[in-house]
Amino acid sequence: MIKISPSKPPVVIRPLVSSTRAGKRYLRPAHVQDEIRRILPMAREDCMRHAKDLQNETLVFFIRLTHESDDELCGELTKELSKRIRSRSCGFCQDLDDYDKEQFLNDVEIQVLAKVLAKEPTRGREYLEVAFGQAIKRLALDEFEKFRNSAAGNIAEIAIDSSDEEWHGEEEVERPIEFLPAATPGPEDILLLADTTEERLQLLQKALDAVEDPRQREAAILHWGHGIPLHSYKRGTPSLTRRFRKDARQIRYWLTTAMRQMRAALGIDKT
After folding, report:
1. Do the Cβ atoms of 251 and 109 come closer than 8 Å?
2. 95-142, pLDDT tens digit by residue?
3. What is residue 159's three-state secondary structure?
4. Which of 15, 35, 130, 140 has the fewest CB atoms within 10 Å of its CB?
5. 8-state DSSP, 5
6. pLDDT digits over 63-75, tens only?
7. Closest listed residue to residue 107, CA positions, set 255, 264, 236
8. How far is residue 108 from each of residues 69, 133, 147, 205, measured CA to CA in Å?
9. Is 195 exposed, middle or buried (0-12, 13-18, 19+ CB in 10 A)?
10. Using CA atoms, how far apart are residues 101 and 93, in angstroms rounded to an integer?
11. Whole-number Å distance between alpha carbons of 20 and 116
12. Are the C-beta atoms of 109 and 86 separated by less than 8 Å?
């Protein structure tokens, strides 16, 4: 156990600002608060060394704390959290084949990371610091229900004939507005509520234009529009890791960032 020197002032931990539907302010469990107090004074190397032993809620707190201020530490903590998200989500997709299972796990992971990395505090994000396991269960069940009801791999149908659009290895995607990223429910719902195909295309273009990094935009189009998986063990099968020559964790972060920017562009209230 790591003890804080008595000579040091007490560690102040920012409180959560969200409330339950009954109006009661969210509070981190006492054991999580205590763990945060023990870890905060540590050097970054010690924090990284203890990452595997931290409570899930504590990991979320420190990812939030180090995001955009310490990329290396935040990356290591996020890597550990990603493993736990996928491990907990596995129990909700046992009946899926290997490909669909991988897609399901990726989508749940992206949704959770999008909440964790959101700039503004939301109930959904802060609940991960209060009851991580319950939050993952809710997200996984919602995602599985959406997956079961999806007619075409979670790609919403747009009245456009794109039958001549195929994946050709290293060729660029020339018409990104024809593809709908739909790994999370928000943008898809807004697009489906649009009255005309032209309006849908305008909304989709607006969402894609909001993705600041061209690589993240292309990855989003390929993954959610073309159904290209993050990675594949089959030789000759296209994947985002092969195309961009980045590991899966980096690609997942790109997709998380792209989805967050698209949701913001469409004015979706993240809860």
Report:
1. no
2. 777 777 887 888 888 888 888 888 788 888 899 999 999 999 998 888
3. coil
4. 15
5. -
6. 989 888 888 888 8
7. 255
8. 26, 13, 11, 25
9. exposed
10. 6
11. 18
12. yes
Q: What is the pLDDT of residues 8-18, one digit of tens each?
A: 455 568 889 88
The size of the chain, in residues, is 271
Could you please report the per-residue DSSP string of 67-135?
TTT-HHHHHHHHHHHHHHHHHHHGGG-TTS-HHHHHHHHHHHHHHHHHHHT-SS--HHHHHTTT-HHHH
Q: Are 114 and 259 in contact (CB under 8 A)?
A: yes
> Among candidates 265, 267, 264, 230, which has minimal Cα distance to 114?
264
Place of tokens 């195309």: 243
Is the pTM higher than 0.85? The answer reads no
Cβ contacts of 153 within 8 Å, gap of 6 or more: 103, 227
Q: How far apart are CA 138 and CA 141, in angstroms?
A: 5
**Calpha distance 52→79 (Å, rounded):** 10
In the block, which residue shows the tokens 């979320």? 60
The angle at the Cα of 192, spanning 191 to 195, to the nearest 5 degrees, equals 90
Please, which residues bridge with residue 19 across strands? 25
Instruction: Quickly list DSSP for 42-74.
Output: S-HHHHHHTGGGS-HHHHHHHHHHHTTT-HHHH
